[in-house]
Design brief:
heterodimer, A: 362 residues, alpha+beta, Rossmann fold, OB fold (Dihydrolipoamide Acetyltransferase, E2P), B: 284 residues, mainly alpha, binds adenosine-5'-triphosphate, binds magnesium ion
């Protein structure tokens, strides 16, 4: 940071955090250690306990059992106002009766920093988030993105031990969201603060985090670098939640699965033999114009091409099922809607959808 | 189209004039009465008004009632605001119960309340103090419904949970949260609740009279026995004062609205108006 140049990061440790609301388990034995300066994204569907986890770390809610440690110190029973965390909320949270500068200065005032130093630091923080010219505006005079940036400046101004972000971008439109996401990452790296970032947007989590934790029903399903989460999902839930997948029926046999005549290796070779549903990533599906017009299990008709920018997503109808394929846009141009194509499945290790295995066997 | 507008406008003015007449004619009549001379044909005089400051009971009663209004408003804010905030944040299930309790005084006639509360006041005046200011506690009960309603509207208009949590995570204790974050974000509601309480206290007669305290309305009643003109003059003055309070309230509300702040102005609901019971006494 410009003021002191020192890195703030401390290790943050959640030990078997559990939170039960009137019989409902919102958070089930969540354990997670963030290295100093690391940004971990908690990703999961609505209601999986992300906000609950964040509020326990912030001290805004009380644990049922478990511990929270900052830099080795147990802070589990410390009140939110003593915990030294910076938090950016999902809802707009600027104090409406204060200007941007006063908002940023609020935490410093609580720490009895004198007025001059307070204003100087507030202006620095506003500059850090690119809002130098907006210090005297009230919240209602700022756009949603600007408000969240002021909220970020306000959270960072107190040099907290931990930065907590609860879906700070979810109220913004897609374009601003992408920009501000990169901005948050830049500021976080510049300040070097340990950060827990909560989101239900997988793209956001994969783009911003050092490590991603995927949560489901109050539990942490997998924790790892974005590339691992995406390409080596540990559970079917992770595979389905992170990125789009094709669910293709096949036959498990001796550590492999045969899907429409193609042999694919399994992530878990110990899967018992039998009928099963394999989860195949759209990027693992490639298309070729089917010149010889022959039939076959992997021949179909393109029914739609969705342009996503550098890549395109092609929807192919195989007659008895729909398959998604994703590829560079230049390649997709060769297979416009209506054309006959044949599919090739790249032999990446695939997961088996657990729920369908039983159903298929029954 | 514009014709309909004109007709609508005319209707509005008519209703406004009617309502204004409803309030202003009696006050005008009172004012007229208070400026009459002694004889039938004697000229108008302000002697009844001039007598107000020189009637010591009145001067004390006015001070005492203003003090009561102030103390009651402060007590009300000090008790109700933190309670309501706490219930909303931590005990949302109690919300209905608190609302019920706060609105209950509306359903109990003042006279019944007084009868119930009287032994307590006798005990207090025997054992602790017989100061009239203890009436504030009884008045606190009377103003609860009105104060609750305005504060409730004010709290509903802000994102209480997020704002308090943001302030807490920035290091603010609960006291600071209340004074620096909650209160400044609902000034209209707080002003509203205070002024409604104040105008209710200034017009209160039953409690003071039956508990043997001399507040403004009781004093007006006594003075009316000696000088009808002066008692009516004070009644007019206290009514006008209450009107001024309510005007301040609605203007403060609408100015905020124009300022584009998030605090909406609540429509002031006039409480039991400060109609001096002495008027009724006058008739009998
Ligand atoms: N105060 C509460 N009282 C009762 N149940 C609660 C409370 N807060 C959360 N829950 C429950 O705990 C579970 C987890 O909630 P949480 O808010 O952590 O979800 P989330 O992952 O943040 O979801 P979202 O993405 O929708 O914000 C939910 O089932 C929710 O209903
Ligand atoms: Mg949430």
């Amino acid at each position: 940071m410009s003021t002191n140049g020192s890195k703030l990061g401390v290790e943050v440790r959640l030990e078997q955090l559990r939170r039960v609301f009137a019989g409902v388990v919102a958070l089930d034995e969540l354990s997670l250690t963030l290295a100093p300066g690391e940004l971990v994204a908690l990703l999961g569907p609505s209601g999986c306990g992300k906000t609950t986890a964040l509020r326990l770390v912030a001290g805004l809610d009380e644990v049922t059992s478990g511990k929270v440690l900052f830099g080795g110190t147990d802070v589990t029973t410390l009140g939110a106002n003593k915990r030294d965390v910076g938090m950016v909320f999902q809802a707009y949270s600027l104090f409406p009766h204060m200007t941007a500068r006063q908002n940023v200065a609020f935490g410093l005032q609580m720490r009895h920093v004198d007025e001059q130093a307070r204003n100087r630091r507030s202006d620095e923080m506003l500059e850090l988030v690119g809002l130098s010219g907006y210090a005297d505006r009230f919240a209602h005079q700022l756009s949603g993105g600007q408000q969240q940036r002021v909220a970020l400046a306000r959270a960072l101004a107190i040099q907290p031990k931990v930065l907590l972000l609860d879906e700070p971008l979810s109220a913004l439109d897609a374009k601003v969201r992408g920009r501000l996401r990169d901005e948050i990452r830049r500021v976080q790296l510049e300040v070097g603060i340990t950060t827990l970032f909560v989101t239900h947007d997988q793209e956001e989590a994969l783009a911003i985090a050092d490590r991603v934790g995927v949560m489901n029903k109050g539990r942490l399903e997998q924790l790892g670098p974005p590339t691992t989460i995406y390409s080596r999902p540990a559970t079917p839930f992770v595979a389905e939640f992170v990125g789009l997948t094709n669910r293709m029926e096949g036959e498990v046999k001796g550590g492999e699965v045969i899907v429409r005549g193609t042999r694919l290796p399994l992530v878990r070779p110990d899967t018992p033999d039998g009928t099963a549903v394999a989860l195949v990533r759209p990027e693992a599906v490639s298309l070729a114009s089917d010149g010889d017009a022959g039939g076959g299990p992997l021949v179909g008709t393109v029914i739609a091409v969705a342009f996503l920018g550098a890549t395109s997503r092609v929807t192919v109808d195989l007659g008895d099922m729909i398959v998604l394929a994703q590829m560079p846009t230049s390649q997709a141009a060769a297979t416009p809607a209506g054309s006959r194509v044949s599919l090739t499945l790249r032999p990446d290790p695939v997961l088996i959808a657990r729920d369908e295995t039983a159903a298929a066997e029954a | 189209m514009s014709r309909r507008r004109i007709r609508l406008q005319a209707l509005r003015i008519a209703i406004f004039a009617l309502a204004a007449a409803f309030f202003l004619v009696p006050i005008g009549a009172m004012f007229e009465f208070s400026t009459r001379g002694i004889g039938v044909a004697s000229p108008r005089t302000l002697s009844a008004w001039a007598a107000i400051p020189s009637t010591p009971e009145l001067a004390t009663a006015i001070t005492v009632s203003l003090e009561l209004a102030l103390i009651t408003s402060l007590l009300m804010l000090g008790l109700l605001l933190p309670t309501m905030v706490w219930v909303r944040l931590r005990l949302p299930r109690l919300n209905r119960i608190v609302e019920f309790i706060c609105l209950m005084p509306l359903t109990v006639p003042a006279i019944a309340l007084v009868v119930g509360i009287k032994p307590l006041y006798i005990w207090i005046s025997l054992n602790f103090t017989d100061s009239i200011l203890t009436l504030s506690f009884a008045y606190l009960i009377l103003v609860l419904p009105y104060a609750y309603r305005s504060l409730d509207a004010g709290l509903a208009a802000i994102d209480l949970k997020t704002l308090t949590e943001a302030a807490r995570s920035l290091g603010a204790g609960w006291g600071t949260v209340m004074l620096r974050v909650v209160v400044p974000n609902m000034p209209a509601a707080i002003l509203n609740a205070s002024l409604l309480s104040a105008s209710l206290v200034l017009g209160e007669y039953t409690f003071a009279n039956l508990l043997n305290y001399e507040n403004l309305q009781v004093a007006i009643q006594y003075v009316s026995l000696v000088s009808a003109g002066t008692s009516i003059a004070v009644a007019v003055a206290s009514l006008l004062f209450a009107f001024v309070l309510l005007m301040i309230l609605s203007f403060a509300g609408s100015r905020r609205r124009r300022g584009g702040r998030v605090v909406p102005a609540e429509t002031p609901i006039a409480p039991v108006a400060t109609v001096p019971p002495s008027l009724l006494a006058e008739g009998s």
